[in-house]
Structure formats: structure tokens, C-alpha cells
Specification:
Two copies of one chain form a homodimer.
Chain A (H helix, E strand, L loop, with lengths): L4 H5 L9 H11 L2 E5 L4 E3 L7 E7 L2 E6 L5 E7 L4 E2 L1 H5 L8 E4 L3 E7 H5 L7 H29 L3 H16 L3 E3 L4 H8 L3 H13 L3 E4 L2 E4 L1
Antiparallel strand pairs in A: 1-8, 2-7, 3-6, 3-8, 4-5, 4-7, 9-11, 10-11
Helix pairs in contact in A: 5-6
Chain A binds a DNA duplex (30 and 30 nucleotides) through α8.
Chain lengths: 219, 219
DNA sequence: CTCCGTTTGTTGAAATTTCAACAGACTTAT
DNA sequence: ATAAGTCTGTTGAAATTTCAACAAACGGAG
């Protein structure tokens, strides 16, 4: 467990909990670490939503596939990100999304019941954990607001430009890489891939962006 | 304050806090009650996100208006619902949405700073409040998942049918009223109003739904 | 370095959505 | 009850998106 302390201490879920106490707490919570290959389903749609996941290394995505096979990507997951906590904390009976690894990765799993239903008053760190979970959920809420702002735009061009503006802001530069390939970006923006490629070309010809594969630059 | 105890006790934020303690706590938190007329801006886009709102009576909506004047409705707010807590808890500097009353209404306002930054350990009810806030945020997260599931559908028809299926489930019947007029429904589904009206007529002609204004019935 | 599978860009046709404009139904105020 | 204003449904044209198919570019394996 110790080798993960570095990434865990950067996880917002463990803010204000020092390393020593963190190890004790993780033990008490029954935290497990599991490794997954690339393109492996970490949590499957329809299964119980008991566990909170924390990505320790690699990369993953939250996706949903509808009736007709259209994939929708809700968000990418990077090391230090928490996933599944919204469903586990809301105690929904089954997951409406699938979490899938896009790179080989390591995941820490914590049974959310241990957080919600036990030791509620006698442990200071447990209170801090609830508080951190609350802050984390609020932040995730903001992320969904942004996703909705992006996808609520009516045209492919507007969706793309809104997304790129957020990515530029996030990276702190007008030159940045995105975590999606074309098909994934289309599935995140909820648009057609070929139309998205065409729109990227158009923006490039108009001198509004420079781009090459996953690299973009706003002019 | 006492006249609102009934609705407050049904607010998820105050679960497991009895009425007597609730009154003391609200006083301690400096809760205020304000009345608004219809079509009044309760929280304005761009303003600080300090307050948590609880709708006591009437109705309101969370909306966003873009660049070009397109309105997007993120959700309706009913009595007992909490709003603004996501932004206040995430401590964003300014609100990215506007909360607007659609009926005359009464709102309880609580400065979120009082919840996040004071009295963190010495008050049992305060801990319960944080816990409730966490659950509430998780539930709101699920709501956004549903909104995204609805609007990520590619056609007006699919968006509408997905929305109606959720409303039917929520009401527990295939016959129900929706809280939006046509323009509002279009702004919630992120589609064109006239196209939406046309689609509703089509579904009616095909015998898939019955509808009259805000009343719908799935066949 | 070459081959092969994958990703990206391009294109034209079909389907859908948006836009603008208007008429009829409904609601509210007087 | 009437009038004014709002909401809903309808329509055709314009714009956009989706779909299918293919070619070019890229990247990894051997």
C-alpha cells in the first residue's frame, strides 16, 4: 500500500489526512488494490454500485452505450480521480454506466458501505472523509455542469470550440493535448465522428485552430 | 420559521435532525427566508456562489443562457429541493447559471461558509448536516446523469421519449403532467420548439402517446 | 523496413433539425 | 364577455448532421 501513498495523498478524498492515519484508515475501510488490463471493464453497467474506485495509475473512462449501440463518453478518468462514488453514495441499486480502462491501470476499491454506515461518530478521520467526499461530489457536479454546457450547444462547431476552450483553460495554455482520439471526442461531444473531423478541418482552414491528432492550439 | 417546519422536515438536507434541533441549528446558521415574485432572478449568473437555497413554496428553474441567447434549462426546482449547493460547496468563484422563479415563491437561504468552515467538530447536528449534504450532492449527481442520458440522444424523438419514460417512472403512472410548457421542454431537451411540437404530434398520430399541453400519457 | 491494422480526413446523399412565419387555441385582465 | 397577449401546432425552405464508403496517414510488430 505504501508505494501508492504519493498518488493517494494527491487524491481529494484524503485531504487533511496525514499519511500515517491514511494507512490505518485504508486498512480499517478494507481498501483493496486491483490491476486491470487495457480495455477491461472495471465496473459494469447494471451491476450493484457498492464500491468507490480511485484510479492509481493508467487511464479509464465513464461510458454509456444506448439501445442502438451509440457510445457516449461521460468523462475521462486520470490518476487520482475518484469514480463510482456518486452512485455508491446515492445508493442506487445498479450502475447506469460502465467504467472501462483505456490503458492498463491500477485501481483502489473501497466498499462505500464502510464509509456511509459505520463508525459514524467516533472517528475524526471518518468525519474528514465524509467531508472530503462531499467536496469531491460538489466538484464532480461542476464537471457535469461543464459537460452539459458543452453538449447543449447546438452545432458541432460550437461544441468543439467550447470543449477546446475548457481544455485550454485547464492546461493553462493555448497549446495542449486532449485525452481523446477522434471517435472518443465525438462520443464525448455527442456528435458524428466524420462531421467532427470535417469541422476540425474547417476550423484549421479558417485559421482558428492548429491541430494534429490529439494536439490542439487555439489561435 | 415554525410555519415552514413541515416542508423543511421533508428536505433531504435535514434528515435525521428533529424539529427542535432543526430550529436551533437554522438560527445558528443564520438562515433567512425571502419571498420572490414570479419571473424573478433568485441567484444571478456571474454572482458569488455563497448561498445554499431551499425552495419552500412555489417553483423555480436552473437555467443558462448562452452567447446567442439560447436558453438551456438544467432542471426544475420544486418545494423541498435544494439549489446552489453544488457551486457553494465546490467554492466556485462565480455562478455559471441563473436560478429564476417560475411562480411566486419563498426561499430559505443559508450561507454555505457557515456549514463548511465553522463548528466542524463540536456539534453533532453539524456532522449530520454535512452527511446529508453529501447524500444530496450524490443524488443531484444522479439527476445530472439522467439529464445527460436524455440530451445525449441524437434525435428529438429519442430525447422526448427518454424524458417521458423518466417522468412516467417518477410519477409511478403512465399518465402524468410535466412541469414544463413547450418552450421550456424544448430548452430542457436542447431542441427546437417547433420541431418538438411536430414530433409530439407525430407520436400522437402514431398512437404512441396521448397528450394535451402539459399532460402526457404513454400507450 | 515493410506489412497490417487502426485512426483520421473527405465526400455526397439522405435524414433531421433549425428557422421564420403564421393561424388557431387558450388564458388573463378588465 | 371581450380584447390582448401567450402558447401550441403547422409548414416549407435552408442549414446542419448523420451515414456509408473509401483513401490517406499513422504506428506497432516482426
Amino acid at each position: 500500500m505504501k508505494k501508492y501513498l504519493d498518488i493517494l495523498s494527491r487524491c481529494p478524498l484524503f485531504n487533511n489526512i496525514n499519511e500515517e492515519n491514511l494507512l490505518v484508515m485504508l486498512d480499517c475501510l478494507g481498501a483493496k488494490i486491483i490491476a486491470f488490463d487495457k480495455k477491461y471493464t472495471i465496473f459494469a453497467d447494471g451491476h450493484p454500485a457498492k464500491f468507490i474506485g480511485i484510479l492509481l495509475s493508467g487511464a479509464a473512462q465513464i461510458t454509456r452505450v444506448d439501445y442502438y449501440g451509440n457510445r457516449s463518453i461521460l468523462s475521462g478518468i486520470e490518476p487520482g480521480d475518484v469514480f463510482g462514488e456518486d452512485f455508491a453514495c446515492a445508493e442506487v441499486s445498479s450502475l447506469p454506466v460502465t467504467i472501462i480502462s483505456t490503458e492498463p491501470c491500477e485501481v483502489m476499491l473501497i466498499d462505500c458501505g464502510h464509509i456511509l454506515h459505520t463508525c459514524k461518530n467516533n472517528c475524526g478521520f471518518h468525519q474528514q472523509l465524509i467531508f472530503n467526499l462531499m467536496k469531491n461530489l460538489a466538484t464532480k457536479n461542476i464537471m457535469f455542469h461543464q459537460k452539459i454546457e458543452i453538449t447543449s450547444r447546438r452545432s458541432t462547431r460550437e461544441k468543439l470550440l467550447t470543449y477546446l476552450a475548457y481544455q485550454a483553460k485547464k492546461s493553462g495554455s493555448n497549446s495542449f493535448d486532449i485525452p481523446f482520439d477522434r471517435q472518443e471526442l465525438a462520443d464525448y461531444l455527442e456528435v458524428d465522428r466524420s462531421g467532427l473531423s470535417a469541422e476540425i478541418s474547417k476550423l484549421r482552414n479558417e485559421g482558428i485552430i492548429e491541430s494534429n491528432r490529439k494536439h490542439f492550439e487555439l489561435i
